[in-house]
Amino acid sequence: MYKITVIPGDGIGEEVTQSVIQMVDSLNLPIEWEIVSAGLNTYNNTGELLPESALNSIETNKIVLKGPITTPIGYGFKSINVTLRTKYNLYANIRPVKNLGVIDSKYKNIDLVIFRENTEDLYAGIEEKISDNECHSLKIITKSATLKIAHEAFKYAQSMNKTKVTVVTKANIMKLTDGLFLNTVREVALDYPNIELEELLIDNMCMQLVLNPSRYQIILTSNLYGDILSDLCAGLIGGLGLVPSANIGKDIALFEAVHGSALDIAGANKANPTALALSAAMMLDYIGENLAAKKLKNALNEVLCYEDNFTYDLGGNLSTSDFTQKVIETIQTL
Ligand code: NAD
């Protein structure tokens, strides 16, 4: 029996987590879900953002399926996502981006994976107010964290028979911090002689991705660039409703969609649960339920082969709950 912690989160979180729990339940696996609350709604109801009960559940079960959590923009508390990633040292944020079904996108043949360092960089959130007119933020890059994410990317490349890893920095300007990231990756690359290391600056990478994304297999980068490139790549395949992610640490792994709480459509039964469902498939692969993971991915892909099954974000009319039923029906046929 697997016991998995679920944090529904804010905005569309409740809708998409319910949908994905139903999809995974239809795979008939021995999974027990432990639903705990955290985030802005929890704060508004209880005065706590990240209650002890949520932390205890994560530490006991060690596998987490998480919905998005709203973070106030430009003021207020530190992101709960960042807190969880640093508290549990979830150093690798892995984000596969691939065309799905017949979803209209600028390019076909996109099949890349972003490996984003997940615990430091400007995301450390170490900021200082010098005066009303001047604020500073500290960019932190360490060799130890870079080694971990770089090995993760190269090991993945090797296991998936990929031939190239593209490291993305701005080491021409941030010679010390991004320079350390780049030099550490160069060092790691020597351990994997069969895999080519390509080096690009972040500005050039943005242009190359918009011009010719199918050139890329694995993108290895630091926290902030990885965050921005993920949304860019999501746009290339049809939007944020489609891109999953895994946050992997030594003991704990947390799976969530790349998108946020989408407050503009929350509660409207319009959200696309595909990104979280694909995150659940990554979770099933992680716990060794590879066949079930494959079934879920195949069912999603098949459902998305018909425009009638598209949710609002893809230009369709199908509700979250009807989309969920389509996926469950398709799983039964596989
Ligand atoms: P967002 O991802 O919530 O939404 C951006 C746009 O994409 C919106 O128009 C939204 O409707 C659409 N969208 C996103 N996911 C969708 C889905 N599954 N189905 C259909 N449409 C979808 O980004 P934002 O508006 O910049 O952020 C909103 C909040 O979410 C912020 O507080 C932010 O901090 C938070 N956030 C949380 C996470 C997380 O918990 N991991 C990630 C990103 C943003």
In the predicted model, the low-confidence regions spanning at least 5 consecutive residues are none
The total count of strands amounts to: 12
Written as H for each helix and E for each strand, in order along the chain, the element string is: EHEHHEHEEEEHEHEHEHEEHHH
User: How large is the share of residues in beta strands?
Assistant: 15-25%
**CATH fold-level assignment of the largest domain:** Isopropylmalate Dehydrogenase
Structural class: alpha/beta
Bound molecules: nicotinamide-adenine-dinucleotide
CATH superfamily of the largest domain: Isopropylmalate Dehydrogenase
Give structural notes.
There is one protein chain. The chain has 334 residues and is an alpha/beta fold. The protein has two domains: 1-93 and 243-334, Isopropylmalate Dehydrogenase (3-Layer(aba) Sandwich), CATH 3.40.718.10; 105-237, Isopropylmalate Dehydrogenase (3-Layer(aba) Sandwich). The chain is built from eleven helices and twelve strands. The chain has helices at residues 13-25, 40-46, 52-61, 80-87, 143-159, 177-189, 202-211, 223-237, 274-286, 290-303, 320-333; strands at residues 2-7, 31-35, 63-66, 92-98, 111-117, 127-131, 134-137, 164-169, 196-201, 218-221, 244-248, 253-257. The strands form two sheets. The chain has a ten-stranded mixed sheet with strand order 2-1-3-12-11-4-5-10-8-9, with helices on both faces. A two-stranded antiparallel ribbon has the order 6-7. Bound molecules: nicotinamide-adenine-dinucleotide. Nicotinamide-adenine-dinucleotide is lined by residues 12, 68-71, 81, 240-241, 256, 259-262, 264-265, 271-272, 275, 313. The site of nicotinamide-adenine-dinucleotide (NAD) has 19 residues, from loops. One of its GO terms (biological process) is isocitrate metabolic process. Belongs to the isocitrate and isopropylmalate dehydrogenases family. This is Isocitrate dehydrogenase, specific for NADP+ e14 prophage.
